[in-house]
């Protein structure tokens, strides 16, 4: 979807209110100390998160479906990251099991049709003590913008920005459905974050800051692999039947 406006989006996201001063601080905050960690940046876009992760000492691999965005990300990261063109609707067959300490998946979950399958792939490539940090549109934001029932689950075609011709297709879903997919894919929620704008936004983008202080636009999660379920104790043997019964 982003290929036709990749350069415009990359320039916008580098310094915009919602990307630079809202989502990136939230996601990177949930990621925590990444020094020495192997991080997989899924849907890496123009490399804004990847560059920050590298600067914080991580070893970064990642992918995006847009060749233009991958080229921009490689240039931004100066060759320090292994970034590839890959469609996340397909398995990550080139990523070994248990090879990532952290998966970062920023603002892209709502574009995926089979989200559970992708989340299971993330579960596969994560080390047993790893974590998945992701952000997505807050369910109340879509409901406030689109109307209808909050509990509607459907794909919606609209522009990424009301001021630009950036057509996208994304899913609207209630929070219950989002969390159910995490559980079905084998994850537990370690932390849920409804971000607040950083103070700098009040000076640079006062209208956006006021809006985000009253209604969240995104929601972010830190997920960890669920432990395997303990085996059920063997059932008691049935007593032998008595004659005449």
From TrEMBL:
SUPFAM superfamilies: S-adenosyl-L-methionine-dependent methyltransferases. One of its GO terms (biological process) is methylation. GO terms for molecular function: S-adenosylmethionine-dependent methyltransferase activity. Residues 225-245 have a biased composition (Pro residues). Residues 41-134 form the Methyltransferase type domain. InterPro entries: Methyltransf_11, SAM-dependent_MTases_sf. Residues 224-245 are annotated as: Disordered. The keyword Membrane does not apply. Keywords: Methyltransferase, Transferase. This is Class I SAM-dependent methyltransferase. It comes from Actinomadura soli.
